[in-house]
Structure formats: C-alpha cells, structure tokens
Amino acid sequence: MSFLVVPPEVQQVIIDELLRSEDLKARAEQDGAEQVEPIIIYRDLINWSCLHSYFRNLLAPHIFKTVKLVNDEKSGASLDAVARSPHCVHVENLHFFGSAPDKVKDEEADRKKRDRWAFPLEKSHVERPDSEKSDDEHSDGEHSDCEQSASLVHNGIFPRSVDGLLSNLQRFPSLESLSIRFDHCCLDNDDWGDLVEDETPVLEAEAQSPWRALMTLVYSALSRNKTTHVKHLDIRQLTRKEVSTFGCAALHAFLGHLEQFTLSIHGEILGMAGYDLEYYSNRIGEYSAMMRNLDKCFFDHLAHVTILSLKAPEEGPLGPLGSVEYNYSSLALRAGHMPLLKTLHLEYVFASRELIDFLVYHKDTLEEVTLRNCYASVDDICRGTRWSKLFKSLWSAHPTKLRRFELARDKADPHFENKGFLLDEEEETIQTLLQDAGNIIFLYANIYYKRGELVFNGKETWRAFLEQKDQRYWRRLMKLVDRNAMKVIEG
Prior knowledge:
This protein is an alpha/beta fold.
C-alpha cells in the first residue's frame, strides 16, 4: 500500500493531524512546557499509526520525537523498549518527571516504611546488561563520585530501568534536549528553611527522605554519561533544597558539553498557622543560599553554552547583591561565565552591577537579550542600580553583535496606575510624554524586608519617567542595536 493510492481526503486528514500536533506542541511550550503531555499531543497520530504498518512508519518520527519518562517500572520498561527498537533514532526530546512519597508524620510508621523501601547501595542492585551501561561503567566498573554521594538506593522510586536510561542517554542517537522536573508536593509548608543545611545534614536528609534521595539519584545517573548528544538541559522548577550531587565533578563534566541551558526556579509563599503572616521565597534562608550557589552548581561549568535562560519566580526575584537580612537573593551570574554566550533570557531579575558586568563581558558575543518582568531598584540597602546605568554601561561597551534587546512584561502591576503622589503639572507632563509611542515606562521595585515580597515602586517609576534619563540611554542603546541588525541584514 503506497501513500499515492490512499484517498486524497485521507491524505489530507493525516497532513492536518501532523500540522495540528506540531502547532499544539509549540503553543504548549510557550504557555508552560512543564505541563506538556506528549501522549495527549500525539494521541490522534498514535491512533492513525495503528491502522497499518505504512502509517506506523510514516508517523513514527513525529510520535517518538518527544517522549516522557517517570520514575516507575512501567515507564522505564516502555521507554527501554523504544531504546531497543529502530524508533530510538527518532527521539529528540526527553522529559523526565520525578515524584516520591510524601513524608510520614508518625515516626513509627515512618521507620517501618523506610525499612520497607530503603537499603544500602550495592553493586548488585545497579548492575545492568552491557547494552545499558554508560561509558565509564564499561571502562572501570566503579561508581562515580556522584553515585557514592547517595548512601541509599530507594527501592521502587528509582527503578533500574529508569537509572539505565538516564545514565546512558547515548542509547538515543538523535537526543538533543533533556528536561528534568520533580514534584514539589513534599515541600513542607511548615518548613521555613531558616536553617541552611551543610554537607552532613544534606546527606542525612537524602538517606532518610525518598524525595530528596530521588533528586540525588537522578542527577547521579546523568553524571555517568561520559558521551552524549544532549545539547540542551532544561531544569524546571528547581527547589530550594540542596542536592549533594550538584557538587560532583562528574556532573560538572556533563554540564560542560551543553550548548543551551534553561533553569527555572520554584517560588513559594509560606504561611504560619494561627498567624496572619506570609513569607515569600526571598525570606527563606535556604532559598537565598541556593540562589547564591547557582554559580558553583551550574554557571561555573557551562563553558560551551551559547543560549542561557534563567527564570526566577515572582515570589523570589534575583539580585541585586544585597544583605540577606533584608531578603535580597543575589544573582549568581559573573563576568567570565559562559564566554561563548549569544542569547540571554532572564525573568524576574533586578538590574544590578553583577548583571551589568555580565552583559559588558559578553559585548563581543551577545546577539539577543530578553529581560522579562525585570525591575530596577534604588534601594540603597541592596546596592540598587537604575535602568539608565545598565543601558549606558552596555552602550558604552559598544557591543558588536547585539541585534536584539527586548524588555517585556506579562502583566501590569495592580498599583501601576496609582499616581496620587504626583503634582498636577507632573501628571500633565506624563500624559504628554505617553502620547509618544516611543517613550517606555521603565519599572522600579523593591523587596519588602519583612516578608520578602516584590513590591512595585510606583513613585520611583513615574519620577524616572518624568526625568527621561532612562529613556535617553535606552534610545542610544537601541540605535546601536539597530545598526548591528542592519549589518546582519546587509550581509
């Protein structure tokens, strides 16, 4: 049966389904790829593939392009079957989602449960067939330093089939993108995270908590990939809890092969029972500590990355480098990180001296910069930086390849229209300036020191708009960016 003898109306239905699946996938990724279920997107295509071997072969590259793996036996066995089949060459994107049992409140029940699912790490448990072993296991048979950091393997929450897939991604020859996400239901709303863990408590927590152990074992498995085609790692909703594997040299070596790195941070609002009080992520000691260590965990090791996306949450914006006592979580990007960087996307990050140094350092490599939901601050406590300072510094550095610089925001602040503090003549001047579509309102905000909450600074925003200093340096920078873009167009 050839495609030519299939009735035209059937051909059109198949083509429409292919186009629809790609459109659904693209829109889902824009709206929040963490929620994408490939099986839903490709369900109709799978149904078509069951009709005939011809349709199976025709649709296989689309059905297997994006696959999902969870930490259970069924999922591991299913994807293992794909890895052993000819369809393994079609897998380009792998989404891993990890979940583990919540903590048990009763100590005796907790002890019995741990006895049932936990046992010491033994080589016999992780031994796999040669076809499933990673390169370093073939070479010396020893566990990496990352694997040794986990003192327990948790039976049932990280099956051998899943470990075998994540530790040997080379089984998918066309795999380019890997995303990692964990269920955060185990984050205790009563855990205020004020006591920052050092190495020993982290290891103890990973030995006792299945959720903490799972995170360690997943990244330990990744570290055993000596050779891989993966160019893009997407870590979604990184929690404030430390992972011992983040300090391992083998994982750092894995990061060193990446060309694109995406990191989104999990934000929280914690409430205390019986009190009318809410604390935001920046008020949590563990959160600030984790954000300060992002360079040691990731950024220091991304030598070949050309595309970086860092998405902080609205509950915990990053930068500027201020006092932890006043609930500012510093931005861990430094001049010298990612020397080949071409594209930068930041969300909920403050303009800061650290960001300026980072941008200026990459003046000869950066091509595109997007700052989404980002703010400047004039808070002396946090060494705040005005937008004009950032624009002037980058413009003065004469970036040679920068052809796109975008400021974007998803929603207007509810207090944005409040101008009650302005004089009547100032209000009139603002209305006149707003008639020019080229005039941009550059946003200012602070972190509320008691709760760690992001607070829009309307007074400073409108004062800066009246002064127009931010606008002047923005226009200078945009002229330079436009010239660079024209050079690219003209060849």
